[in-house]
Amino acid sequence: MIRAINVVDYGIGNLFSVRRAIEVAWGKNLTISGETKDIISSDLLILPGVGAFGNAIAELHKKDLIHPIKQHAEKGKPILGICLGMQLLATSSEEFGNNSGLNLIPGAVRQIPKLSNNHQPLRIPFIGWAKQEINNQIHSPEFLKNINNKEMYTIHSFEFKTTSSDHLLANYKYGGHKITSIVGNENITGVQFHPEKSGKFGLSFLNEYISTIQ
């Protein structure tokens, strides 16, 4: 049972809007903390983030948060990465140089294609409402059962390319390309969209996620 949720505070991310959305969806108070003891003792970690991958991973190192986050994951406890927080779950990133990630879901963060399938320029970053397409509804986690075809607010220039297709749970289409939207590996989940900015569907996703991982 999820009794304690902690939003990881490492100096990068819209912490309070994420906190508010989760509290509305969950119905209880949670903590915002970058303290090792709060990360280790929590039942669920939320890893938010906005900005550049390199800056974010550097802050996690600076605050000595890499080990406690991995320790939390190794215990089989769930982690939800949101936007940049999702990308930090990857093995590496090519954003503004090569940077190592948390490697909780094997894969690399790479730039979204600049041209459509028809060779027309695409606006980067992608900013807007992305319709979620679940890859395999039969074998998807239960918390994704109602998200198919729902539009979620998304903004990003780089996407998470998973090493294994089993870890790619959902995508959206942009310029004819399938862009990664949701990734998952056992107790680790990442969403490229912002559930806290996606209205009732975002809150519904958070509620179903928290309810079904207990």
How would you describe what is shown here?
It is a single chain. α1 (15-26) packs across α6. The longest helix is centred in the last third of the chain and has 14 residues, at 199-212. A hairpin with a 2-residue loop joins β13 and β14. Helices cover 26% and strands 29% of the residues. The radius of gyration is 16 Å and the shape is globular. The chain has 6 helices and 14 strands. The strands form 3 sheets. It has an 8-stranded mixed β-sheet with strand order 2-1-3-4-14-13-12-9, sandwiched between helices. The protein has a 4-stranded mixed β-sheet with strand order 6-5-7-11, with helices on one face. The protein is an alpha/beta fold. It has helices spanning 15-26, 36-41, 53-62, 66-74, 84-87, 199-212; strands at 5-8, 31-33, 44-47, 79-82, 92-93, 99-100, 107-111, 126-131, 133-134, 151-156, 158-162, 168-174, 177-185, 188-191. It starts with a strand and ends with a helix.
Brief rundown of the structure:
The chain is an alpha/beta fold and 214 residues long. The protein is 26% helix and 29% strand.
What topology emerges from the helices and strands here?
Layout: E1 5-8, H1 15-26, E2 31-33, H2 36-41, E3 44-47, H3 53-62, H4 66-74, E4 79-82, H5 84-87, E5 92-93, E6 99-100, E7 107-111, E8 126-131, E9 133-134, E10 151-156, E11 158-162, E12 168-174, E13 177-185, E14 188-191, H6 199-212
Parallel strand pairs: 1-2, 1-3, 3-4, 4-14, 5-7
Antiparallel strand pairs: 5-6, 7-11, 8-10, 9-12, 12-13, 13-14
